[in-house]
């Protein structure tokens, strides 16, 4: 199956390991992965800050870049959600509205793609560690992908999954919110980290680069011993059990 | 401005309130408690999404035909022997109520909890007339003793814990310091004080959870029963309602009251639901001799028909407030509006303008928790985003540095060669600031990020470069 990787800008520049793991995972499951070079940012930073007009240019560019791909997969619930919003954003531009719908319809967040399209629940990974999972807001609430990451993690050999207390609360990233409302964001990420530390897990797993950059950056600042991993990085582990 | 209660800027309030450990403890424990209670109540009802759809339809139908139902309500209130007054703004509403109070030569006024009377500062207006105004909802009573303001639309004194409340009683009411701070005992103590006040009151003022158009009734939902006394003992009852707070008939009322109590406090039904129709009739044993309904516009009609109309679907349950992770840490007073939390952040700038409230739409990570719990399906986080768009694109109030950065973003991110070049250059530019792959003191726009957390150093090789050069080779 031919899959176009929508890497997201965070993964392209900062979290290349997540991108590599995503490619490796998809290829191990028989996908033919391509990287459309024209891809840029999905426009979310500008869009969520109220700069809708400014956000539309990169969005048009992304629509044109991915329009003829048979299937689009991204290791980010939030960026997948942005693609799904495109038809609504271009509702008053008939041509782009149609193109946006075509793109949105074939876009999948990684775990959603694995479980619902490839119909895989056990990817053959093993990771004998105590972990907890952070549900990202856009992925669960807006994209509606809730169970898929848990289904995949449950099938990882040796993995002990501990529920994260108050998992429903946002980690405080929120794109430009994290800098515009730094004080509030700090309180939110601190509470998220405190909850994660309560679980005594060695790893905090997430499915979104933004949340990870926020949580990890704060963990590093506080000097806490907890490692963040993207779910793709866990699903490509083959540690002996 | 009556919606507003302090002179401070949002960011100053936040900086102050995040250090208020009492408040934060009280808010977090209330949120955690209500989270489970609400979920249980929702699950017990079953088919919650269908109920939400139904509730949304009812509210939207009313808003689409608001003129019709307000007219019907007015006719039926008058048919039942009551009076209706349509107030354009706070001044008109207060003037009308003041006139009624003057006519009755009333001195003592008891009130049940009402946000809309907070909105118009009715207490101040009546006290200026020389009246004694007493709040009889326990939470409001506590606030009134101290001259404090509500921090939550349903639980106005949510920011105080029971020990703080006991302290207020000791100081203001002479409550024995040796006595308990147990909630039931504190409530019993106040109940005794209030009983005499009810009996002596000349006028009762209430809000209105819902008005029923086809019967001309006013519905009041409480857990303390105080609204029942406010509407039956004094000789005059004045109900004040936001102009959008009505339903066509009892059938729709039943749906919305269910949604309200389950969403607000996780109850099947509140302890008391009072439905009042007109003054006391010949065959009735209690109730007021005179009944007035004041229908308040105060900016609502200009929201109607616009981009923000859905906010008028609100039934003031506070579920969005109870789930909001931002409210959780900053408390209601940070908003400097009687309407706090997500609903407050949407509604306040609409009613009171952007001058004092342009920060509120940004006080959200757009996590969508508010939208998810809203029983009438107001897309709250989308309306916050809409506000941001208005602030940036229509009002031109965004900071210049931010607009410039977004222009640069638009220019760079919409052209892939430039984007590729830009990510390479930016990565190289910030690399020298990194230590152990993390940046703890970022330059320029990164500084605000690194005030709180470290920033990752860009990787030597971008994913796209890796993809192109790896063994399998890139394509497209």
Description:
- The complex is a heterodimer of chains A (241) and B (476).
- Chain A is α/β, with parallel strands linked by helices.
- Chain A folds into two domains: 2-116, no CATH class; 122-235, Rossmann fold, CATH 3.40.50.11810.
- Chain A is built from 13 helices and eight strands.
- Chain A has helices at residues 9-13, 16-28, 44-48, 52-66, 77-89, 94-105, 110-117, 137-142, 148-154, 177-180, 182-198, 209-222, 231-235; strands at residues 2-5, 32-34, 72-74, 107-109, 130-133, 160-162, 203-206, 227-230.
- In chain A, 59% of the residues are buried.
- The mean pLDDT of chain A is 97.
- Chain B has 476 residues and is of the alpha/beta class.
- Chain B has helices at residues 10-17, 21-45, 48-64, 66-79, 90-103, 115-119, 122-128, 138-146, 162-173, 183-200, 226-232, 250-265, 300-303, 319-323, 325-330, 341-352, 369-373, 380-394, 400-413, 416-430, 446-450, 463-469; strands at 83-87, 108-111, 132-135, 203-206, 210-212, 217-222, 236-242, 246-247, 272-277, 290-296, 434-435, 438-439, 455-456.
- The mean pLDDT of chain B is 94.
Keywords:
heterodimer; A: 241 residues; alpha/beta; Rossmann fold; 2 domains; four-stranded parallel beta sheet; 8 strands; B: 476 residues; Fumarate Reductase Iron-sulfur Protein, Chain B, domain 2; 3 domains; six-stranded parallel beta sheet; four-stranded mixed beta sheet; 11% strand; elongated
Please sum up the structure shown.
The complex is a heterodimer of chains A (241) and B (476). Chain A is 51% helix and 12% strand.
What is the percent of helical residues of chain A?
A: 40-55%
Q: How many distinct helices of chain B?
A: 22
Q: Which geometry of chain A do the CA atoms define?
A: globular
The quaternary state of the protein chains shown equals: heterodimer
Intertermini distance of chain B: 60 Å
Helix/sheet category of chain A: alpha/beta
Order of helices and strands of chain A: EHHEHHEHHEHEHHEHHEHEH
Tell me the β content of chain B.
Answer: 5-15%
Strands of the widest sheet of chain B, in order across it, are: 1-10-7-4-2-3
Strand percentage of chain A: 5-15%
Poorly predicted residue ranges of chain A: none
Give the low-confidence spans of chain B: none
